[in-house]
Amino acid sequence: KLAEQLEAVRAGRAVQRQQRQAAPLATAALVGYTNAGKSTLFNRLTGADVLADDRLFATLDPTVRLLSLPSRRRILLSDTVGFIRKLPVTLVQAFRATLEEVTQASLILHLVDVADPQARAQIVQVEKVLAEIGAGAIPRLRVLNKLDLLPEAPGHAPDWTASEPAGDGAAPLGTVRVSARTGEGLDRLLAAIDEALAMDAVVNATFRFPPEAAAKISLVYQRGRVLQADYDEQGCLVRAEVPHSLKQRLAEYLSSAG
Q: How many structural domains are present in the chain?
């Protein structure tokens, strides 16, 4: 049954990706340790009705919704499955339908339960998993959630956040402190997302992909707007409008043709 559910998720992802081709919308992916509050924050930001509970892997389908930013731009926000410590390789593979959404994001929102005594260790574990699935270099914001649960000095994070642990990937662009339950700090979070994505302008690019790089071609269709695609025996020449970060990510395929 799980296999059927996962296949349905993958099919749904394919349909959504086709719909995204009309405009190169940036995508922000919510990631975090199990019970960090991703679905609650997702609901707060987008008004979507997504299951928010404590069950492991409660979020099987990585729901994607439009999110409006203070600049009036719209982006796609993706809610994903929670990471767990020592995630078995078999589970990473089984949930690839949800993890793929993270690897293709323009920005990662790493949500942390700041009230959890194990928060530091959980940050390191999530960063490790992000690196393992190929998302270690994607820009990210660290979002410290559940300020309302702090026993002392509500509204302020514990002292350890002043020297947050480093992960295996890129350093976070910044840290935002919020309470998804009460809504505290969400205006600051939206502004931070807006600022982070403003650095990822849409640019023109021409790529030459060999036949074995079909997944890279698919990524251009998912993240950008393809203007022209010409196939021949050597592969595919693609002209597209893509986020600058994606152009850098696919630099080895850049072509002077077209």
A: 2
